[in-house]
Amino acid sequence: MAETRKTKLLIIGSGPAGYTAGVYASRAMLDPILVQGIEPGGQLTTTTEVENWPGDTEVQGPDLMVRMQDHARAMGTEIIGDIITDLDLSSRPFHAKGDSGTTYVADAVVLATGARAKWLGLDSEEKFKGFGVSACATCDGFFYRGQEIVVIGGGNTAVEEALFLTNFASKVTLVHRRDELRAEKILIDRLQKNPKIEPLWFHEMVEVYGTDAPLGVEGIKVKHTKTGEITDIPAKGVFVAIGHAPANELVKDTLETHMGGYVVTKPDSTETSVPGVFAAGDLTDHKYRQAVTSAGMGCMAALEAERFLAEHCEDGDEISATPQLEGTD
Ligand code: FAD
Ligand code: NAP
Q: Measuring from atom 34 of ligand 1, which residue has the nearest CA?
């Protein structure tokens, strides 16, 4: 029989924002339930070294996220391996449906669903996804030992992926649509010093080509952004690293969003347009999108949820008032 779980605070997402919210909410005695989603630990589980998490000169992303999970659990967060498929914010208490069949009933919700990799949207990219086209170098780089690889993009992710892939590849071509990278200086410096990486400026990927049986990549076609000239680059692996979009599927029709789907929060706050619903991390942050800023927002969300619950809910009482949509300016 389908289970119903009641909680004062439901945290959706298990990245730095979600786990930090769990730590703070547990210490506020809110007994939070945290639902992990399809990617327990979030985006940092798809990378290797993290060098900007305060207190760790260098830590492996997946290890850091296991530590955060253990910390939240030790403080009292109940961590559940489920995916929220539907979220009803039209009346309080809020109702969330899990893929497992469980219904979560919550007086307040922290949304920390983060962001997901963007794709170029080419038919050929779709055709070869999982067969030579990837968005995760740490997951798939190992398959390309001794092969030529291309990475598309010019941000931190693209440069980090290019550097990481030199552990396996004979050559990495970094294809970028401009001649300037938006990655951090320290990463650009490492890229410039790496003899296996060749940047290709002012080019965009227009096609992935390869074999049908077995399905596999043989190369890409790139177009010069100024001249329009098309060139072939032979490659067995294509890593698309053109940024991330907010994972807003649960709330895009119910909460106010902006800047390409990021959930709007009030200034200096994680409050959304529905009272009792707080948003933290990459889901709401179009500007910084860092682990430490996400964790900071997770802290804010838990503290704001605690205050909201204290104001709206006597100990043990459920909140039954219908939420009112408020302006966000
Ligand atoms: P995320 O980490 O995106 O986690 C989102 C969580 O929500 C996941 O657990 C997911 O399972 C869950 N979720 C989504 N939908 C649902 C649902 N329907 N139901 C339940 N759960 C759901 N930042 C740094 O500061 N330093 C770095 O070195 C660094 N390296 C990076 C390397 C790579 C390759 C990438 C991609 C990013 C990197 N970042 C780095 C950025 C950093 O990972 C993000 O800023 C941070 O992870 C965002 O945290 P978050 O908690 O908002 O969400
Ligand atoms: P990003 O910073 O948004 O960079 C995306 C890159 O892809 C840009 O260079 C962009 O080009 C390019 N691009 C976007 N759309 C494209 C298209 N349609 N065709 C071709 N190129 C396209 O994304 P990100 O690198 O994934 O980083 C996301 C966030 O995570 C950032 O805040 C980043 O700092 C953080 N992060 C941090 C670390 C770290 O701290 N070490 C590591 C990874 C990620 P333009 O430059 O021309 O716009």
A: 47
Secondary structure, 3-state, the chain: CCCEEEEEEEEECCCHHHHHHHHHHHHCCCCCEEECCCCCCHHHHHCCEECCCCCCCCEEHHHHHHHHHHHHHHHCCEEECCCEEEEECCCCCEEEEECCCCEEEEEEEEECCCEEECCCCCHHHHHHECCCEECCHHHHHHHHCCCEEEEECCCHHHHHHHHHHCCCCCEEEEECCCCCCCCCHHHHHHHHHCCCEEEECCEEEEEEEEEECCEEEEEEEEEECCCCCEEEEECCEEEECCCEEECCCCCCCCCCEECCCEECCCCCCCECCCCCEEECHHHCCCCCCCHHHHHHHHHHHHHHHHHHHHHHCCCCCCCCCCCCCCCCC
Q: Which ligand is nearest to the CA of 56?
A: 1
Domains of the chain: 2-116+244-328 (3.50.50.60), 119-240 (3.50.50.60)
Annotated catalytic residue 140: yes
Taking CA atoms only, the protein residue closest to ligand 2 atom 26 is: 243
| Shortest-distance ligand to the CA of residue 161 | 1
> Residue 1: pLDDT band by 50, 70, 90 thresholds?
low
pTM score > 0.85 for this model? yes
